[in-house]
Write a structure and sequence with these properties.
- By secondary structure, the protein is an all-alpha fold.
- It has one domain.
- It has two helices and no strands.
- The chain has helices spanning 3-14, 18-64.
- The radius of gyration is 24 Å and the shape is elongated.
Length: 76
């Protein structure tokens, strides 16, 4: 974000009463935290996607060759 955009947001916030400034700041903190969480999730998913695709291909091949057996959920 450009410094002019940040300055514009700060200017808008400064025109608000103090109590509302605090509320807006808290909403912004929560929003940024959510964005950071989503970014971390996306990065983690991208790192594992190749392995997930490979595992799915192996599973599909094992099923086609009759080497797979149903999962026993009681053993998890």
């Amino acid at each position: 974000m450009s410094s002019t955009a940040i300055a514009s947001v700060i200017e808008m916030m400064e025109s608000l009463p103090t109590q509302i400034q605090e509320q807006v700041a808290e909403h912004i903190r929560e929003y940024i935290s959510d964005l950071q969480d989503e970014t971390r999730w996306d990065e983690a998913f991208q790192k594992t996607q190749v392995n997930l695709v490979a595992a799915a291909r192996r599973a599909k091949q094992e099923i086609a060759q009759g080497q797979a057996s149903p999962m026993d959920y009681t053993q998890l």
